[in-house]
Amino acid sequence: MPAKSVTANRLSDGTVVYLTPGGGWSEYVREADWREDKEEQQALLERGEADVARSIVLDAYLIDVAIGEDGTPWPTRNREVIRSLGPTTRLDLGKQAELEG
C-alpha cells in the first residue's frame, strides 16, 4: 500500500496544511505524518476530520506520498505538488520562493 499523509486547508487563512506526527498542522509537507498501513492511514484521517469538526481546518483528506531516504514525505500527484508549493503564476510568491538560491 502506498504511503499516505493528511492534508487540509487552515480555516483561518485558507493555507494548505499537513497533519504532523504531534497532531498539529504544518504548512510544509516535509513535516507531515505518514503511514503505509491502511488502518493507520484511516486513524490519521480521523484525526484530521476531528479538526474539521473543531473548525481548525477544512476538507481533510488522504494524499499519496513518496518517502525519501531520510523519511521525508513528498506528494506523488501533480495537484498535490502544486498545492504544496503555492501559486504557480509567480515564482517569487509561495513556498517555491523559499527554494530559490
TrEMBL record:
It holds the Pfam family DUF2849. This is DUF2849 domain-containing protein. It comes from Ferruginivarius sediminum.
